[in-house]
Design goal:
The chain has one domain. Helix content is 93%, strand content 0%. It is built from two helices and no strands.
Length: 168
């Protein structure tokens, strides 16, 4: 029954070994364990702080992203408005250029028509002159059919010619 009731010597040696072990652990083991626990605790606190900072940054980034998205939408709307204005300006300018070109073509056509009209009038005048000469020739042939009439006519022309030369 030694195991159930220990001897005084055994109890002494057990207590002494326990105290010695406790002293060694208190002197060398507990500070290391305590330091490790504190280090772990600091690491956990640092991790929590970093997690909070990351969460804060995430929230800030979300706000920044929302603001950037809104700004992008605003810029997109503005760009679309400017594009519509530019398109309208281009259309108006094209219409204006088309009107100017049409006016130039119309003016050119008027000038060509006037030139054709002048050409036609010259041709008509030429034809009238030729017809007049032809008619005058026929009338003169009838009037100057005899030699006597021709001599009188030539004399009259010579008199008119000499009278003109003398006055000049």
């Amino acid at each position: 029954m030694n195991l159930v009731t220990p001897d005084g010597g055994l109890l002494f040696w057990m207590t002494l070994i326990f105290l010695l072990l406790f002293f060694i652990l208190a002197k060398f083991g507990f500070p290391i364990i305590t330091e490790m626990v504190e280090k772990r605790n600091r690491h956990i606190d640092e991790s929590l702080r970093l997690a909070r900072e990351a969460q804060t940054r995430m929230n800030d980034l979300e706000k920044e992203q929302a603001a950037l998205l809104e700004k992008t939408r605003t810029e997109q709307t503005q760009i679309l408005r400017e594009a519509a204005r530019t398109r309208e300006n281009i259309i108006a300018q094209a219409k204006s250029e088309a009107r100017d070109e049409a006016a130039k073509l119309l003016e050119k056509a008027k000038i060509e028509i006037a030139a054709e009209k002048e050409s036609a009038l010259r041709d008509i005048r030429k034809e009238v002159a030729l017809l007049s000469v032809d008619i005058a020739e026929r009338v003169m042939r009838e009037k100057l059919a005899s030699d006597e009439e021709q001599s009188r006519y030539i004399g009259r022309l010579v008199d008119e010619f000499t009278a003109r030369n003398q006055t000049n």
